[in-house]
Hints:
It is built from seven helices and seven strands. The radius of gyration is 17 Å and the shape is globular.
Amino acid sequence: MRSAPRFLADEMLGSLARWLRMMGYDTAYARDVTDAEVLRRARAEGRTVLTRDHQLAKRAGEQGLLVESDDLEDQLIQVSTTLGLSFEESYTRCTICNGELRNATLEEGARAPPRVRESQERLYVCQECGQLYWRGSHWSRIFERLERMLGRIGDWSGLSR
């Protein structure tokens, strides 16, 4: 799996955290914690703080990034451009808990709805929370949105269907 960069998104950036996870980036999400705890955790875990809070960004210094916009697409473009992020399908992480995904076993795949088991060659499971994933029509919509967002900042040839 991808080793760097790693992020810690504050509670104002939950949607951005999920999309960074879909892009394959280890992105923790800090909810209901103090700024001091966010900074402590980011330093302890070697994470870049992503925040909309000017004071928190200032306190994080070089280990922080002030996300300027409220709009998800603008946020993703800013973070991707500033930090040189790319997207590779094989690195996608669990959007719920940030765990790494792996191929699901037959037993794990049996939890999927029958129509999914019949139509999908491969199922994935989160190694942390057990959430099942597959590349159905929703995956095509995710790709389309990433292409639209990230295509605005250059060549994203890592996108594949």
